[in-house]
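Customer ticket, subject: "Can you confirm the structure for Band 7 protein?"

Message body: Hello, I'm evaluating your service for our small team and ran a test protein. I'd like someone to confirm that this is what the system normally returns, since I don't have a reference to compare against.
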Amino acid sequence: MSSGDAPREPEGPVGAQVRPELDPRETIDMPAPRVGERVITGISGAVGFFGTLGALLVAAGLIVLAGVLFAHGVGVGGTVALVVGILLFLASLICFGGLTAVAPGQARVVTFYGRYVGTIRHTGLRWVNPLTSRRRVSTRIRNHETGVAKVNDADGNPIEISAVVVWQVADTAQAVFEVDDFIEFVAIQTETAVRHVATRYPYDAHETGQMSLRENADEITAMLSVEIAARVASAGVHVIESRITRLAYAPEIAQAMLRRQQANAVVAARARIVEGAVGMVEAALARLESRDVVELDEERKATMVSNLLVVLCSEQSTQPVVNAGSLYH
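Agent reply: Thanks for trying us out. I re-ran your input and got the following:
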């Protein structure tokens, strides 16, 4: 941020998906901010520095003049020059305290005896009222990674989950005055949102079309970003992105859940094999009938279907059996 223009809310990464809206029943009821950022630029630091330096030189000159006047017996003029010189000297020292350096990626929140004056975002050396207090606030992009949290998913199974959120201070006034510590506030609200989202969905989907934490990672992280943004908006924080970095069953049920996943995979694979085999058998019977290769009665068709299904669905290679007689003897 290298200009004194009004700050704009940071934009998300290019190509980011549109985030879904929160369910009205899950709306986060956070208090509305009572203060908003007001940008001020102050006076150029060069003007403030050389102006104060000039006043300091004038004060030194008045003090020297007072000494000369006292030496020539001009007591009244010397006293006036001495008093003005000392006061100007003290005022110059105080004015030097108004010089404020603002580095890139930082802002200064200016208050005057408890009253919010504005925020300096213009980088470089600036000069403001030396009686004000100026708090440094970083506007750089930050990462926060939650610790591994153990929660129960929608099915009641204990899981371990953690996430990382990328955020940035968008409104320095709200970040300073709306919460005690905006960094700690973001950390706590992020962990709360992660726990809340994890309890709303199962780890694995049990029905077609059901959302799950493992299979719908993009949708879940989008909802997580929305909820975190809603929770920290009152603190002047803009959430750029969030991602789940760890998702696993808790150790005490990990082995049992692994066996269940393996069983589900075996059942799904078997169902796919049988479906394909039935299709191949149907196609074979249809081609035999359409080309009049052989006429099969219902019993012969049943035998052929049984043999083909055994060949196609068996895990081991089949052994041919030579039938020297007929099918009926």
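A couple of notes from the result: Residues 265-313 form one domain. Confidence is low (pLDDT under 50) at residues 1-21. Feel free to reply with more questions.
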